[in-house]
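Narrative summary of target 7.
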Amino acid sequence: MVVASVASGGGAASGTDETAIRVEGLGIRFRRNRRGRRSFKDLLAGRRRRSRPDEFWALRDVSVEVRAGEAIGVVGRNGQGKSTLMKLVAGVMMPDEGRVTVSGGVAPLIEITGGFVEDLTVRDNVYLTAGLHGMSRAQIDARFDGIIEFAEIADFVDTPYKHLSSGMKVRIAFAVISQLEEPILLVDEVLAVGDKAFREKCYARIEELLAGGRTLFFVSHNERDLRRFCTRGLYLDKGALVLDAPIDDVLDRYNADYGPQG
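Modeled conformation, tokenized:
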């Protein structure tokens, strides 16, 4: 049975015995020459798409349960399903098999600058993006100065977004998303662009959110960062979950298979 990703509303979970994310028998497949997804008509009818010779499973039979307040590091080589898993949890992709259930909302730091409009100013993009993620106008008004201060771009508030450097775009995007009050934070290699000082500032913000009880799904190739934030790890290889264990054990296994991460 194929079940779409489901997210139920609500505030942050109150204790580590509560399940924040449940992934059951998850599978998704693509075509090698182009994405071969089911049509919206097929989804409504509940029809399964027939297999094609050029298809492959990006994820297959993955099951994970994440408790509220846990910090999970997802490791593996490029192309092994890490980002795909994050997108399925975020609800921006539909699985071919299995189910994803998310308790509470999600703050996705995935392809972080996606959704920003190039011709709009920084100010307009802040209001647009925060609004699309569920913040009210009054909430954005109250937090706007803090967002701009965190991003360190006060001189560019009324500059078209397209004129910002890639590093500045990441700054403003992180500043907006990290202000969301959703209980689950998904972070996928979004801070690779930007200077060291700002990355450390972002990491301090992530630690602040974790201290407040947020649940973290963290994809990174940086072993030091994974050990810093995460207590548990998931090791994906060829679309399969190889190991679900304490982060040190997962990194030791990965290093034994492929060598140390960055």
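The first helix runs from residue 40 to 45.
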